[in-house]
Amino acid sequence: MGNIISPENIVYQKPKLLNDTDMHYCPGCSHGVVHKLIAEVIEEMGLEEKAVGVSPVGCAVFAYKYIDIDWQEAAHGRAPAIATAIKRLWPDRLVFTYQGDGDLACIGTAETIHALNRGENIAIIFINNAIYGMTGGQMAPTTLMGMKTATCPYGRQADLHGYPLKITELAAQLEGTCYVTRQSVHSVAAIRKAKRAIRQAFENSVNRRGSSLVEIVSTCSSGWKKTPVEANQWMEEHMFDFYHVGDLKV
Amino acid sequence: MAKMKGAIVVNTERCKGCELCAVACPFDLIKLAERVVNRHGYRYVEQVNSDACTGCTSCAIVCPDGCITVYRVKDSE
User: What is the DSSP string of chain B?
Assistant: First the structure.
């Protein structure tokens, strides 16, 4: 046993770009997995000095503390506008935003749709967990029909709250987007696919092919009031029926 | 066919005990440690039967906090 654990036998470890700072996310949060994938992809592409992330308002507001690249914090929902400026001023950089559903699909819908429609050469990572996690589990634009949250305790109803917003389907219709996909990170196979999607989006940004949107259907075990394992099962049973995983535009 | 032999090391101070690794392990080798917590007050996971580990990395890939380092060698037997 003792001789297995030595540096030359390492086959998997925390990416170097992911800082040793403890992440504030709840146990089992999908944010951690996506942070790890972003760090791995940037390392593999050798873009440690050329990557600029734009962090949102929401649970991922401290993303700049966890991944050791350049970051810019944006006002709530305005990440695509900030990313537009960065990419136009620094065309050779990898510029991406990292946004949740409350940031991207609610207060930032205008910025998101217009940045994608202009075909800005940025990548948008969209974490969709169908709830406002940071503020205590309120209903989000992406909350499923019938889903119970703090602000719709009897479940979301169409006549009162309207219908869930499929931002990714909208983005796929826009001329400016070159790559639109929906992935998830609930299993090993799904995580491998999500990593390939993030890499594709980042390559599109670097090579100035247009806008890319990678939606990651995620869990919020605290907001959903489930254990991390139950949250993954609930996501598989309920979220994927409405948010179909796969490429929408390649 | 050469069998692979693996081992994992868990960063117990970083682990939050979400148990996603325990679900992902194909051989059911990871469990929450009993009656111990780390400095954050979280229970953390440990490997229970290290001989059966093949170093497949499934546990480390699903770990949201990057707590698991996986080692692997070819079994010489």
Answer: -PPEEEEEEE-TTT-----HHHHH-TT--EEEPTT---TTS---EEES-GGG-----HHHHH-TT--EEEEEEE---
